[in-house]
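Moderator note: this is an archived Q&A kept for reference. The question asked for a predicted structure of one protein chain; the sequence and the answer are reproduced below.
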Amino acid sequence: MPLETPHPHLYFTAEQLPAIREKTRHPRFRRDWEALQYQATRHLEGPLIIPTEGPARCFRAAKKAARCALVYRIGGEKRYAARAFEFLNAILKEQEWAAHPGNLAFGLNPAHLCQELALVYDLLFDELAPQERERFRAACQRELVDVFLKECR
């Protein structure tokens, strides 16, 4: 059985969070932190998935989820985690997350989507029940990895 690495660990660890939180108060970083909080706060309202965004709809939702998850993990406000979960669940209900196979740039869409979803998964891992983690992993395998590998053949 593989060892489980504690989460978060992709961009920073739990042990690094106090230093990151301190940096958000430093004048050099405060403006960036406030901009990120502002964006995440805007994501608390409005639709989760915008169908008119076409193939990018899931990527854009995942990017919003990642911002909310990051603001939650650093700032601790549960409303951001709740919204990130809403985005995640909306994405999991979608079909053809990375539509347009056959397009020469097809691999870029699932790659960017995987990056955002990996961040959300890492930041919210402790809040996900084991069955939610498995549902998430299975959906990513089906909708991204398997589709991408099929296109590569």
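Archived answer notes: The chain has a mean pLDDT of 88.
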